[in-house]
Write a structure and sequence with these properties.
CATH architecture of the domain at 3-53 and 95-127 and 280-352 in chain A: 3-Layer(bba) Sandwich
CATH superfamily of the domain at 3-53 and 95-127 and 280-352 in chain A: FAD/NAD(P)-binding domain
Helix content of chain A: 25-40%
Number of helices of chain A: 12
Oligomer: homodimer
Shape of chain A: globular
Largest interface: A-B, 55 and 55 residues
Distance between the termini of chain A: 37 Å
Structural class of chain A: alpha/beta
Strand order of the largest sheet of chain A: 5-2-1-9-21
């Protein structure tokens, strides 16, 4: 440990985190990976410092329900401080980390710089527009709660605007919703839009012909949910068709100017394009190089250590672990993040005790997606099924995975009421969304 | 009906509301008064047009719980379209009415102008800063859901900032919260702050000395909740004292510069001053005059008709009805709005049928305020009580008054969980609040 750095850190005590006689683990990100590391390390003779841009953990798998008025944001968010209530040697700070200085084992943030003994980058993923500036500017991402709320506002504002215009082209554009990306987020979002169209909006807008509302799902591949089984893909497409969603396969979006989506095949007029077609690692400046970053993620060894760097680990979506059994890396899903987080916590304890860390191996517990009421697909390692029971399983798994008793109860209450009422009640424009505004969306 | 105006309205069909052979009632505002008029008029051979700045009704009596992390905003808001699902001849539009043109029986809005046969102004009240520009600029109002969310964010941001600063004066300012106004909003808010300080924040901020947090309630009069009984005032003060809130009587705020509140008596250093000390009618330009506006409200006769104008009514907070039995007018509370709304709906039906309208008379059902867990005061006409049972009554009344089964269930779930956990779980900074920002707060 370079003593001079430690001193310079002391002279910049902006974060007000005490120097104690324990190794300091700094975790950047309170997502699934970060939480699981901190939970499993707390009370184990480490000083844990968690930094996140927000003061809450987001249960990302249900973001699409926030965007489609099914759940309030507060039931899928959980205050990080509350999760770590009464944990000793745990420090949380809201900070947007600007840079990592590996040579001085220091991270640089607007609220001050901090020295680490171990650094864990668990920043997750962010929307990838593949360099298309128009798409970034005009489309709606859905990776955070503010983004999901913006989308909810925009959908409702579009229908209100459709009521008011007498320009028939404009009205149709406002009533067309284009979702790009046939992965779980795109499919679940499209299903929820289909349900809104079928059950909710005709009652809300008697003076608007909701039959003219179109929900398009654009998929580059020749099937939906490509990592899942062919059966799941087929069933998902069938369910979406039943809900009136138009799915376009083998279709690649070229551009979007805020009014027209152009693809390799045809074009779509819409004022709302939702982009779920790409993610990339949420990288932090300061550790560049072809050895460190591969495919937009930090290249890690089987212990989640970033190759070529000391005491810096990456976990979850932001990490790329190429192994003989999975040379392309594990999928960017919650289960990988959770399992890597738990394993890394164990490994750090082993290292502290002079034992050998264990290599990570992903245990695929299966995957699932819900398309709507009574409509879900589940692929377990030895059992693939769909329909009503799959939907129940999906609900149960997501309910028990939500953090906190209150959030579970609130989500359950919403789902039970929705089941019997065919309604999605959170159709509120709390903060109107202004298109193309320069302000950041967070 | 001046036919030429009707024509000019037709030539500006921006609102796309059809002209039919029914009298058109335009209601501005979807608060308690507006909702009750529309509910009681719908299906009664009127065309009803409701306009509101938001697409939801706000249950204002529980706003303070949103501001203090007790309830999610979505459980006290209800989409107006959902309330009037399947009602015939009901039209809702989001519109901020800019002007009323009584001569042409037309209202002017950014989404177009519209002719009315009967106009009902149910715009409620807004924060009154009594012309003090500093207070308007630096203090936090709490009359809308976005404002309550801003306050929630600011309180949490202040504590996060207090953690980071080493300037002890600055830290103390960040940990002092000053609430101005000893009416129900101020008292309930102060109580909720007291509970946060006592039960929630010490666990959240182990590295901050929460004992140094101060909650000040500044009241101009010599007792709290002045319209209620002396017993209620005394009990409220006692309860607040138990929760560690410092109440300052006979204290009038002179100014606030964002750091120091100056009063007639002493000064308070704080970076968060919440202003609940004044409301005024939310007036709309176009109907000025000393006969029309008295004390910042529309002067109405006992039928809620604005004096001197034809076919224009004002109801609820925005209306001032001076009667022999109550020469100062009824209080600006939900019950008056609800009762006036119902009565006006009946009167419009009577007028349509050629019958005589009935004069309004407020039936005071009592008033209540809650200070915290097991701590409330209730004044009924023949029974005044406080404590645990009052608190149960308060909860029951507010629960059944919330609109919609889902909202009732969500609020109940939250309250039950809070009762057993002593927690307030919605401690989320979804949209950070930026002080002194030029953007409007809505």
């Amino acid at each position: 440990m370079p003593q001079n750095t430690r001193k310079s850190d002391l002279s910049n005590p902006a974060m007000n985190i005490p120097e104690i006689n324990l190794k300091r683990v700094v975790i950047i990100g309170g997502g699934f990976a970060g939480l699981n590391i901190a939970k499993n390390l707390s009370g184990k003779d480490f000083q844990i410092v968690m930094l996140d841009k927000h003061n809450y953990h987001t249960f990302q798998p249900l973001l699409y329900q926030v965007a489609t008025a099914g759940l309030e944001p507060d039931s899928i968010a959980h205050a990080i401080r509350q999760i770590f209530t009464k944990k000793e040697n745990f420090y949380f700070r809201i900070a947007d980390v600007k840079e990592i200085d590996p040579e001085n084992k220091t991270i640089i943030t607007p609220i001050g710089n901090i020295f680490y003994d171990y650094l864990i980058i668990a920043t997750g993923s962010e929307t990838n527009y593949y360099g298309n500036e128009n798409i970034r500017k005009y489309s709606m991402p859905m990776k955070t709660i503010p983004e999901a709320l913006d989308l909810r506002s925009l959908v409702l504002q579009s229908l209100e605007a459709a009521l008011l215009t007498n320009d028939l082209d404009e009205r149709q554009r406002l009533m067309n919703f284009v979702i790009v990306g046939g992965g779980p987020t795109g499919v679940e979002l499209a299903g929820a839009f289909g349900e809104l169209k079928k059950h909710v909006l005709p009652n809300d807008y008697p003076d608007l012909d909701i039959r003219r509302m179109n929900v398009h799902l654009i998929q580059g591949a020749d099937r939906l949910l490509p990592p899942m089984s062919q059966n799941a893909s087929d069933k998902a497409a069938k369910y979406l068709d039943k809900l009136g969603v138009q799915v376009w396969f083998n279709t690649l979006v070229n551009d979007y100017d805020g009014k027209i989506v152009t693809t390799n095949d045809r074009s779509f007029e819409t004022s709302t394009m939702i982009w779920t077609a790409g993610v990339k690692g949420a990288l932090i400046p300061g550790m560049e190089g072809e050895d460190v970053i591969v495919g937009g993620r930090y290249l890690v060894d089987e212990f989640n250590k970033i190759k070529g760097l000391e005491d810096i680990y990456a976990v979850g979506d932001v990490a790329l672990m190429m192994t003989p059994y999975n040379p392309k890396g594990d999928p960017m899903v919650a289960q990988v993040a959770i399992q890597q987080g738990k394993q890394l916590a164990k490994n750090l304890m082993a290292i502290k005790e002079g034992k050998s860390p264990k290599p990570f191996k992903y245990k695929d517990k299966g995957s699932m997606a819900t398309i709507g009421r009574d409509k879900a697909v589940v692929d377990l390692p030895h059992w693939k099924f769909s329909g009503w029971f799959a939907w129940l399983v999906w609900m149960f798994i997501h309910l028990v995975s939500l953090i906190g008793f209150r959030n579970k109860m609130i989500a359950l209450t919403n789902w039970v009421v929705q089941y019997f009422s065919y309604n999605k009640s959170v159709r509120l424009i709390i903060r109107p969304y202004t298109k193309g505004e320069a302000a950041p969306r967070e």
